[in-house]
Amino acid sequence: MKNLKVLKWFLLSVVFISLSGCMKDEFLDSKSDLLVVIDKSNLAGEYTLSNVKIVLQESNSNETSELSVSAPFESVSSTIAYGTYTATLEGDITMAAAAGDKTIKVKAVKQGIVVDGPEVNFTLELFASDPSANFVFEEIFFTGTLTPEGEKYNGDKYFILHNNSMDTLYADGLFIAQSDFLTITKREYTPDVMAEAVTSNQIFMVPGEGQDHPVLPGERFIIANNAINHKEYNTSSLDLSAADLEIELIGSINVDNPAVPNAINVSGNLLMHNQGHKAYVMGRFAPGQDAEAFKNENAYTYSYETQLGTTKSFDTYKIPNSYIIDAVNISVQTGYAWNVTAATLDSGWSFVGKQQSDEERYGKSIIRKKAGNLENGKPLLQDTDNSTDDFTPGAAASLIK
Amino acid sequence: MINRIFIGFVCCLCCGFVRAQDDSLQVHKEAIRERTNQIQGLRNGFYTLPALRPYLYKHAATPVKISYLNEQKELYNPQLGKGNQGFTIATSSYQNNIFKDYTVWGEAYYANYKAKEVRFNETSDYDLVFPYVTSDSVGGDLSTEKYHFSGGIARTMGSWTLAAEGGYKANLSHRKVDPRPSNNSSDLELAFGASYAVSPKYLLSGNIGFRYYKQRNTLKFVSVLGRPPVVYLNGMGSFNNLLSGFSDTNDAILYELIGPEASLSFVPKKNLGWFAHVGYKQYTGYRVLLASRDHSNDWTDTYMNGRFGYSGENYGFNYGFLGSLDLQTKKGREGLFSNYGHEIGLQKISEVSTYRYYNYHYRLDLFFGQKNWSIKPYASYNPFKEQYLSPFREQMIEKINLGIKGQFMQELKAGLLGLSLNLEKENVLKKAATFGSLKQVSGLGDLLHQQYQYLSAEPFNLTAEGRYDFIVSDQIRPYVSFEAQKSWAANRRFYCLNIGLVF
User: Fold this and answer.
1) Is the pLDDT of residue B34 over 50?
2) Residue B48, domain extent
3) A109–chain B Cβ distance below 8 A for any pair
4) Where in chain A are the domains?
5) With an 8 Å Cβ cutoff, are B354 and A27 in contact?
6) Residue B436: what pLDDT?
7) How many domains does chain B have?
8) Above 90 in pLDDT, residue B439?
9) Closest CB to B338 among A10, A18, A84
């Protein structure tokens, strides 16, 4: 009897073990409620966002998950497994411009997001990113200044180039050219190559072996007429002694600063038109092509018929549009006749002078507008290939303090 | 050093007990029968607990054997290899007549074998530390030496028996070509028990135990070129991206396992009657990798088992049944780390529960027979499930095995001959697998598919065993035995040859 009781207990135990052997243990809940706040303070102007997605990559497992963000693109919430994450946002941003909208990318990245509690919040700071971004003209100061005595002062003109990409770019080999043709005088040039090239015989090039002049993302490269402290000669002028490059002007007005490298004159001596009746283009020659080869391959003779019926011919160079990475047509507000570059390079134009020989133009330049910030917080400049939209006309030259 | 300890221990077991043997031929045959008879073997399983050892055998004996084994299979778990080839020297002793009321026993073995073509596992003692092993796709043969010593003593005082047992195992594994693991493990077990005669016929026994296991391993490469990626698996082909890739350093990967065991048994004193047993073991383990001294993984391994059976005898016939269940559940957690903003390297930020392993066995054995023959039909049901969370992976297989084992024993003039044949068919009732989001590390996808294929195979197994014990002189009682197995479907071939002496 006693033995049977003991046996019963054993049987009960075996049944208990059998029942407890259930294959349905739940995994512990190791997830957090996630809130991602989207900070758009780096974006400027009118824009619309679309196709915004956040990819969350967990460092331990290398697994990724994706969140879609919808309008008004303020925040997104989800649940997320514990881990250490890198969040990468990518989407499209369409910037409004009179000449047409331009769509580039909008991005944000945040690393080292530790998710180990019931809730996790973090902010993604958006920045615009143009995959095709390159050097652009940030500012062209072509008017010069006046001395306190009211005399014209030309040596203090400058270009500011801007690295509008998120890569370090090298200015070595970049050329800048001033157009032969005037934007205030429309003529029928023969042969007409404007659809495929820009005509110029004032071309200089940045020297270097390829990596001598690095420009970090969002940084500037200043090219001065004379890279000196002009304030020593004209208190209304500016200090260009810290410029990155100086143009070799014609001997009578050239002042060399040995501490600043000189540009290589490919053709002529580029002296910016102080009323801005020209176009400026920036680009690179074909791979392997040096200045001599460029000139040999792109010599160009054009002619036009004057009002008197005579024909004038000029020897110059045609710069293929494929070489050009940025172009700006400059004119006078009330004297503009036409663009001297193909519309594919620039479909607009900018100005400083409101009319011909505007005495108010001195000390003013055209400055490209800011579209937002790059990932590193540096400015992203607007580049819609329309100078009317992209530049602020008649702005005070930024280097004059 | 460990070799000398082993040899000394074996000498003690052999020499110490030789003088005490009962040397009649008949007694010798009885001692062999109670150790090799398959029906007795089912019962013996209940009496291996320390406090029931005095009731395990009637006759003392000390067998010593040397064995050669070779295994070859074409369908296999790559983490365990294609089969083992090597030899073992083993001895065990059971003495119940040296001192009045005392029973002593001991075991020792030395195994030296080659685990063939082990891949995706550079760690030893897979059954204890899986799935947390070091993995590379190259692998190769792994040379292994194992040592084991154990012994115990039980004292019977009236209705009570008190007992203690201790054991130690060591495993030394290495490979002499790249990749070169060097693994050392120690496994210490202690157990204590008491049994009480609840009636003139039956015993109730409680036993508790404790296990402490430790493994240290390194993985080195001599060749600078062509090193495979080394990853530390977290289960079902997953691994921690931050922790993996470190190898060839002087630091070691460490494993530790610790846990209690407890069991309760109700058994007849003399092999006939009702049997019942419940047991529970739970080990908690952890792994520490090279990239961080924090635990990369922690797990609990729980074993529950129950046995219930009856053994009767009528008119020279033995009959009975044994129902058993063995439930293993493993639950693993893995550490999550951050490598941002910490000068000291990786910092553990959390741990998550990601791994589940369930391996259950339910089995029923029926048996009947006489002194010289017996038949044991059996059936088992084996549901198996393994899961990994994020990315979710799962393999689930339910199998049923049906088999029958017959044994024939014949007393010859100078000895005892035993032959047995076991036929078994494995059938899959249900199977399913989901292997999501496999990483592009060479071969891990193949590993999972190969394991699944192995687990869901339906082989027909044929096992033949034979043993002949004979007497040369009063002190020289040799035996030879063999075991051969062939599995169709898995194309497994195994054989083992043993030559031994029984003192």
Assistant:
1) yes
2) 2-473+481-502
3) no
4) 31-129, 135-396
5) yes
6) 77
7) 1
8) no
9) A84
